[in-house]
């Protein structure tokens, strides 16, 4: 199971998020890894991303604002923080979690594609 603190009905808070004081364009996951992210919807309040990472693939370091993620497939990932420390976790299709702003890189170390929908929150008034 992912390292998240679950809050009933499958909602969770990320336990190992790295604070982010604003995402630089070079850290935007859509710009860093365009082959893995598709913007499905965007307005002045949210951006909805579809994420697909095939088995054995890695993505570069990037940053996310606060977000809700819904996992569409079972998966096993290795997450690396900016300091190089890594954690490995598994998720199940149907898991739903809250993630605080963070900077990380991901590697799919499982045998199935990682497929998820992320709803990123934008700062009020942006």
Describe this protein's structure.
- This protein has 126 residues and is mostly beta strands.
- It has a single domain, classed as Jelly Rolls (Sandwich).
- It contains 1 helix and 11 strands.
- A 5-stranded antiparallel β-sheet has the order 3-4-11-6-9, with no helix packed on it. A 4-stranded antiparallel β-sheet has the order 5-10-7-8, with no helix packed on it. The chain has a two-stranded antiparallel ribbon with strand order 1-2.
- The N terminus is likely disordered.
Summary, kept brief:
This protein is mostly beta strands and 126 residues long. It has one helix and eleven strands.
The name CATH uses for the topology is: Jelly Rolls
**CATH-level-2 architecture:** Sandwich
When the domains are counted, the total is 1
Strand content: over 45%
Q: What characterizes the major β-sheet?
A: 5 strands, antiparallel
Helices, strands, pairings?
Layout: E1 4-6, E2 12-14, H1 29-32, E3 37-42, E4 46-53, E5 62-64, E6 67-71, E7 75-80, E8 86-91, E9 96-99, E10 102-108, E11 114-121
Antiparallel strand pairs: 1-2, 3-4, 4-11, 5-10, 6-9, 6-11, 7-8, 7-10
List keywords for this structure.
11 strands, mainly beta, four-stranded antiparallel β-sheet, globular, 3% helix, 126 residues, Jelly Rolls
